[in-house]
Amino acid sequence: MPTLSDILDEYEFLDADDRYRLLIDLGRELEPMPDALKSDATLVRGCSAAVWVYPTAQAGGTLHFLADSNAAITKGIIALVLLTVQDKSAGDILATDIEAALAPFDLKAQLSSNRTQGIPNMIALIRHEAERLAG
């Protein structure tokens, strides 16, 4: 996956339709999440589309997330969020201002409120897992 900065560089030069395509392409690049992990326990509440996030603690104290959605554009948003935290230590995740990292994408202006309403819940779940691992 490219870095968040690389994606932002490209994103800023695109029109709205191409931005949607970019997000959809990012979603396609997500690591596949096995269907067995898509359960009520991994479902992120408050999203207009179904979103599942499954955290795993890795050797060395890092967190790796598997995530998926039944909506292509939402998968792209998930990919952006994961680029800010994937394979980082719990402390680094807790120190990351995920909202600030995503702010330059201005997702609320680009997408409907239905598409962005679950982002805070997904971020809260990621932070909760980092706190649990750090605790």
UniProtKB/TrEMBL annotation:
Residues of the Fe-S metabolism associated domain: 13-128
Entry similarity comment: Belongs to the SufE family.
Record-given protein name: Cysteine desulfuration protein SufE
